[in-house]
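Lab notes, practical 5.
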Amino acid sequence: MAKNNTIRFTFIGSPVIAKDGILDEIDSKRTDSKMYRLHFGIKVDTSTEFVGLLDYPRDTLKTVDADFNSIEVAWDDREDPDVLSKVARSRLYRTNVGCEDGKIKSFISGYDFIKYLAEVLPGNDKDLTVTGTCKVRYDSKGILRRNLDIQAVWYRRDTEKPQLAMSVPLTYWKDCVDKSDLKESGKIFINGYVSQYATKEEGGKFLPFCVVFDTTKYNMEIPKHKALYDFKMKFIDVKEKTPATMMWDVRVVNGAEEVDFDESQLTDLQKMQIELGDATLDDFRPRGQIYGSKVTELRLNKPMLRDDFADGMFDTGYKLSEFEDKIAVPAKDETVADMEKSAAKPDSAKPPFEDDLELF
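Output from the prediction step:
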C-alpha cells in the first residue's frame, strides 16, 4: 500500500464566524475538565466549508521530537521555549494571526491553540489560509462524518489563490465508478474509500468517500479541454477490478453555483417577443450573477503525480475479498450500499463536529 494515507486540506478564503460565536464549552463525562470546540468557516465564492478543533486540558501531552521519537510533556511545561523547540514542527499548532512584525505563535496543545484563536479570529477581517487534516469516521449513530481538524492558520499571502482544496488518497476500482447519471447531469461518481486509523487492535480501516468528476466543465471542441479530459479519464475510467489508490486534488463545493443565462430561463412571452424580432436575449438578462440550487460535492480536480503516485495509481495489494474485510462497519446495522449512499450525500453545510465526543 502507499505510505501516504493522510487526507490534508488547504482552505484559502474569507473567514465566516457563526452568529453564536466561535467557541463551545462542553461538559464531558469522559474527562475531569471541560472540552473546548473551535469552529468557523472559510468562504470561497459561494462555497463555505467549516473547520475546527476539539481539545481539553490534561496532565500529560504525548507528541514527538524533531527525530520523531515519542516524548511526553508535562502540562505545566507546555509553554516552555526549550520544550517547544524540541517538538517536531509538523506536530505543533502554528499561526501568525494576531501577531506583529512577522512573528509566529506555536503551541504544543490544541487547547491553547483553540483558546488563542477564539480571541483573535472574531476581530480579524483579513483572508486566511487554513491547513490541517481530514478525519473520516462513523459517529455513535452510524452516520458518516468528516472532521476537518486545523493545524495552522495564516494570513493569506497575495500570491495565494482562494481555494477549498483537499489532497485525498482515494482507493477504488472499476466497479466503484458510476456513470449512470452521466448523460443527464454530465457527472461521474466514484464511490471510493479512504484509509483511516481505527483502533490499536484493528489498525487501519477503509471508510466510504464519494467524489464527483464534473465533465460539463470541458468543452470538447477546444483541443486543450479535450486533452485534459482524456488525461484525467485515464485515472477515472479504470479497468482494474482490484483496489488501487490514487492521490487526487479534490475541491469542495458547498453552496449555490453561478449559472449561465440562456433562453431556457425565459418565459413563454419573452421567447415569443425574441422570435418576433422585437427583443434580444440581452434585453432580458438580469443584473448581476445568477445562482442555481445549492450543491454539496467533493469534485475531482487533478491527479497528484508525485511520491508514491508519480507513476499513477498504487496497487493496494489486496484482493477484493480481502479488501471487503477491511471496510469499517458503522455502529448501527447498515449495508455497504447504505454506507456508500450516505457518503454520496454528505451534509457539509453544518460544522462537522456535532458528535466529536466520540473521538475521546
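Observations recorded by the TA: The chain is about 15% helix and 40% strand. The CA atoms of residues 270 and 284 lie 8 Å apart.
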